[in-house]
Write a structure and sequence with these properties.
heterodimer; A: alpha/beta; 18% strand; B: alpha+beta; 5-stranded antiparallel beta sheet; PPM-type-like_dom_sf (chain B)
């Protein structure tokens, strides 16, 4: 009997786990900072990006897994290359210039291709990357090639591309660029949009087998 | 008793949060072959998170596997590679029938499978999808049978339901007997395998098998089986994975 009790008390288990890096969930924000975004829109967008960070930080798994990169246009600038959320410190964005959307999309796709290569070289597992385009206008550069890159990337399951139109955005052109139906932001509800985006990213970064991207319904912030 | 075995499937924290329950399943048994030897069989399955009938599919898969194995052993047949293919086909058709009866596409029953059948002088393994089988056959520590089959992305893998020709099925039958074996689903992959080195994390298995070897009666094995469920649901595991997790372990008694 004594022996039985001592066996009950053995510390079964192991704390010696393999030291693997967390799988990563990359997300690129392509943000329109052209002149027309001046005033209230850019203020609300900045607030939205800050909210995005805070919401992700509140989730322990998303904090370790989600990586954010920011590209602004125009001119096209890589504001921040991929960083996990605790190391992602968004700068206050200002508006300048026109809307080189085609170049911004190509830059975003290039960032993802480069990041995937780095993951592979370091043996880091990763989830399907997301590209989020937010614009209030229409491209001022050549965008047909970028639209083709988006279509090819979606067909090859290289990434998921989402387009969000603000105010007077040219939704017809966004429809030609994005395979997924572009969504129109209600008013300047950037904050609500980024809360939705962070919640969707949390769902993706939590482990679920299967191919489908399970988006939350875009309720509250989009015009239907 | 020629084998000591424990095995548990435990729901992950993300499944509990989504009120989904555990979609992993495990079944194992030691069968007495009419020719006078013991056969250890185990099957584990991980139901796809995207499939509506994932929990039913994984439970069906492991139950069907055990029925098939019991059946051919009861008929006094010796284990061959043909048995493994027939077993996989049997499960595929069973899942297809379940889906048809409920007027659903078979993808709603998507699940992975990993199984072993071990006789004193022959070892058979099969696998479709992620998770892994790790064995000690006296050949320099614990070795993985197949690296987990994943797609480009961390959350994509292959399922027994993917195609009727079972193109993703891995089968191995060898004449090398196994001393110790572990089967686990992908919820434990990042803890039990070194991804960069593509190798088994030896200390994890050494720690766990040490206690199983010490258990020298069925009461103690039952204690360990209970402790295994507690361990799989402990904060130290849940801090590292939010997925369902299954671990089966067996050690052969010294002859």
């Amino acid at each position: 009997m004594d022996e039985y009790i001592s066996f009950e008390q053995i510390p079964f288990g192991s704390d010696n786990f393999a030291d693997n890096p967390e799988p990563r969930c990359p997300c690129v924000l392509l943000l329109d900072t052209s002149g027309s975004m001046g005033g209230m829109p850019i203020m609300q967008l900045n607030e939205g990006v800050r909210t995005f960070r805070q919401e992700l930080l509140a989730d322990p798994i998303a904090t370790k897994r989600v990586e954010v990169a920011v590209v602004t246009f125009g001119p096209v600038t890589i504001e921040t290359d991929f960083h996990t959320v605790p190391n992602f410190h968004p700068r206050e964005l200002e508006t300048t210039g026109d809307t080189p959307m085609g170049e911004a999309i190509a830059t975003g796709i290039e960032l993802i291709t480069k990041r995937k290569k780095e993951y592979k070289e370091s043996g880091i597992a990763y989830y399907k990357p997301w590209i989020i385009l937010i614009t209030d206008g229409a491209p001022t550069d050549e965008w047909a090639a970028a639209a083709q890159m988006v279509q090819k990337g979606e067909a090859n399951k290289s990434f998921a591309f989402f387009a969000i139109g603000v105010e007077d955005a040219n939704m017809d052109i966004l429809k030609q660029i994005s395979v997924r139906a572009p969504l129109k932001l209600k008013g300047l509800m950037f904050r609500e949009f980024f809360i939705w985006l962070s919640a969707s990213m949390k769902m993706v970064s939590a482990k679920e087998p299967g191919n489908a991207i399970n988006l939350l319904p875009p309720s509250g912030w989009s015009e239907l | 008793m020629t084998w000591k075995a424990i095995g548990q499937s435990v729901a992950g924290t993300s499944h509990i949060a989504a009120a989904k329950g555990c979609e992993d399943a495990v079944r194992y048994e030691v069968f007495s072959h009419p020719h006078g030897y013991d056969v250890l069989a185990c099957c584990i399955s991980d139901g796809a998170g995207s499939a509506t009938h994932a929990a039913i599919a994984s439970a069906f898969t492991v139950t069907k596997a055990m029925e098939y194995i019991q059946h051919f052993i009861a008929h006094g047949e010796e284990l061959t590679e043909a048995h493994i293919y027939a077993l996989a086909e049997d499960i595929y058709h069973g899942l297809a029938e379940e889906a048809a009866a409920n007027e659903l596409p078979i993808s709603e029953y998507s699940c992975t499978i990993a199984a072993c059948i071990l006789t004193p002088d022959r070892s058979a393994f099969m696998q479709i999808g992620d998770g892994a089988i790790v064995r000690d056959d006296g050949n320099d520590g614990y070795n993985i049978v197949w690296w987990p089959q994943t797609g480009e992305y961390h959350n994509t893998t292959y399922f027994i339901t993917d195609n009727s020709s079972l193109g993703d099925l891995h089968v191995m039958v060898t004449d090398t007997p196994v001393n110790e074996i572990a089967l686990f689903t992908d919820g434990l992959q990042l803890l039990a395998l070194n991804m960069e080195a593509s190798s088994v994390h030896q200390p994890f298995f050494k720690d766990l098998f040490r206690y199983l070897r010490q258990a020298d009666n069925s009461d103690k094995i039952a204690v360990l089986d209970h402790k295994l469920a507690e361990y799989l649901d402990s904060p130290r595991i849940n801090e590292r994975t939010d997925d369902d997790k299954t671990l089966f372990m067996a050690t052969r008694l010294p002859a």
